[in-house]
Design a protein that fits this description.
The complex is a heterodimer of chains A (about 90) and B (about 200).
Chain A lengths: L7 H22 L5 H23 L7 H25 L3
Helix pairs in contact in A: 1-2
Chain B lengths: L1 H9 L12 H30 L6 H4 L2 H26 L3 H37 L7 H32 L5 H27 L1
The chains are: A mainly alpha (about 90), B mainly alpha (about 200).
């Protein structure tokens, strides 16, 4: 039973990391960084935060692999979607 | 008994088939995977339209970043309250569960209040000032569709969580049902993290 309950202290720790990442995200928007660098940093932070939520709050880190596979499918499909639309985004 | 439990733990590598206890979670994950595709299509569509437009405004000059940063904070806190509510009911602490799930619902409702204020402000003041509207600007239409679709999910989540709170207190729902509701609620939080970055900050 103890393997399915997760410590509240761990949740609070994740909360502070998410909070810190959000503050950093908003902060760097006002720094006036080059557009591409800003975009790259923001995407990294967003994916990092989303992964933290999925891994810890949604327990994917502790779940059976089947559920992780289900969770991964839409991301793979979205990558395909972007690749298939590439000719439209960057016409030759 | 403990020997059986230990053997069960040992005989449970990650590849073990799903047990009936996981079926509810599997159902919710399948729904969320489909829902993620909806959001994925909307976000990719938004990206393509934005890339193809020559007169896209800088989002932070039009939208209120500070208010939405606070809204992000609300959803993250609400997510933490949800996991604390789950931890409470798994330990059998009903009053702590009620407190935290109540706070979760309150956080979601406050998010919706902020969004209603934001939309009203944009539609009545900000967008007319800039001469753009839902119908003549891709920036405005993609913004309202993305945040609106997400806002509907938050509305659904608040109703869902409220019904779970009621069902637990009437003894019809147990911890496993709370965990499934939690999956939905964290997904809504996760999507908002992406929307906040792509629509407001980028």
């Amino acid at each position: 039973m103890s393997s399915t309950t997760h410590s509240s202290a761990q949740y609070i720790k994740i909360f502070y990391i998410l909070l810190a990442l959000t503050v950093i995200e908003v902060g760097i928007v006002y720094l006036g960084l080059p557009k591409m660098l800003l975009a790259a940093l923001l995407v990294i932070f967003a994916v990092w935060k989303a992964a933290l939520v999925a891994m810890h709050f949604m327990h994917l880190k502790f779940e059976k692999r089947t559920l992780a596979v289900v969770a991964l499918v839409p991301f793979v499909l979205c990558v395909f979607l972007i690749l298939m639309l590439m000719p439209d985004i960057f016409p030759l | 008994m403990s020997e059986v439990a230990a053997a069960h733990l040992e005989a449970e590598p990650q590849e073990a088939p799903l047990t009936p206890e996981s079926w509810g979670k599997l159902g919710m994950w399948l729904f969320l995977a489909g829902d993620a595709m909806s959001f994925g299509c909307l976000i990719v569509g938004y990206g393509i339209l934005r890339h193809a437009s020559s007169n896209w405004p800088v989002p932070k000059d039009v939208l209120g970043i500070n208010l939405t940063a606070f809204m992000t904070f609300l959803l993250i806190v609400s997510s933490v309250w949800m996991v604390l509510a789950l931890a409470a009911i798994q330990e059998g602490d009903k009053s702590r569960f009620n407190k935290f799930l109540g706070l979760t619902i309150l956080g979601g409702a406050m998010f919706l209040g902020c969004q209603a204020y934001e939309w009203t402000h944009l539609l009545v003041h900000r967008l007319p000032e800039l001469g753009i509207s839902f119908s003549n600007s891709l920036f405005a239409s993609t913004f309202f569709i993305l945040t609106g679709f997400h806002g509907m999910h938050v509305t659904g989540g608040v109703i869902y969580n409220t019904s779970v709170l009621a069902a637990v207190n009437r003894g019809r729902y147990q911890a496993k049902h709370v965990e499934i509701a939690g999956l939905y609620w964290h997904f809504v939080d996760l999507v908002w993290i992406l929307i906040f970055t792509f629509v407001y900050l980028l």
